[in-house]
Amino acid sequence: MPFTSSLVASGQALGYVAHASVPTVTMPRLKALVTGKAPAFIDILKNFNSAALDEDANLVSLLAASGKRIVFYGDDTWLKLFPETFKRSDGTSGFYTRDTVEVDNNVTRHLKEELDPTMQNEKSGDWDALVLHYLGLDHVGHLRGPRSPLMREKLEEMDGVVQLVVDSVRAQDARRMENDSSARPSLILLCSDHGMSEVGNHGGATLEESSALLMFMRGDGEPMRSSEDISYKQKRSQVDLVPTISSLFGLPIPLYSSGLLLEDVVKMA
């Protein structure tokens, strides 16, 4: 992913290898990403029949309670965990693992409206948080493994999506900040819920399965660190995302969060 890698190499993004605790499957990891709480093994069974999250101490509910308008596209696990929370949404089932194309096209097709660089489309200005959950990489892993030619093609596609999002948000931020001198830059967060093994599976505690991505960028294109600091590389816990986002948005940290603040992100964002 040359574009995505260049963001970290140039200092425009802060990237972390984020440890995801077991079980490394989608629903438990999503719960951990929004609550900061380690999942229970019973969540493996719930992964196949997700129900609404039965607690308000999570980032999504706290954002909504603070008046933030949230739009979502992608894995419908989010819609099961947070029913009637999103201003707009379009979900796709993650259990049709043979589909590596439409699951992602169903997300990307919305970006032209939601991320209109000119902000002429009414949908591009009526939300505060946009959540996109792509499934194709996970499905390719299950079908062909992480080293297949199909994975290379999917990574190239995702790199293009990252560039589309970054370029569009930067254009939107430039327009907003030109019209309002008090406007703050957007935060762009790129993350994964888990990794995958050498055969493309996940759920266990191997290094490959438990290594996830956390990557932060400013919407105005300002650097997140010095480009001369080429040695920057940190390993943190995935749940460190929770207190960090809470601090940036002025939200209370969820009660049972065990994560630690990513100070570099807060300082530079």
Automatic annotation (TrEMBL):
GO terms for molecular function: CP2 mannose-ethanolamine phosphotransferase activity. It comes from the Eukaryota. It is found in: Endoplasmic reticulum membrane. Pathway: Glycolipid biosynthesis; glycosylphosphatidylinositol-anchor biosynthesis. The keyword Transferase applies. One of its GO terms (biological process) is GPI anchor biosynthetic process. Keywords: Endoplasmic reticulum, GPI-anchor biosynthesis, Membrane, Transferase, Transmembrane, Transmembrane helix. PANTHER family: GPI ETHANOLAMINE PHOSPHATE TRANSFERASE 2 (PTHR23072:SF0), PHOSPHATIDYLINOSITOL GLYCAN-RELATED (PTHR23072). Belongs to the PIGG/PIGN/PIGO family. PIGG subfamily. This is Uncharacterized protein. It comes from Phytophthora sojae (strain P6497). The lineage of its organism: Eukaryota, Sar, Stramenopiles, Oomycota, Peronosporomycetes.
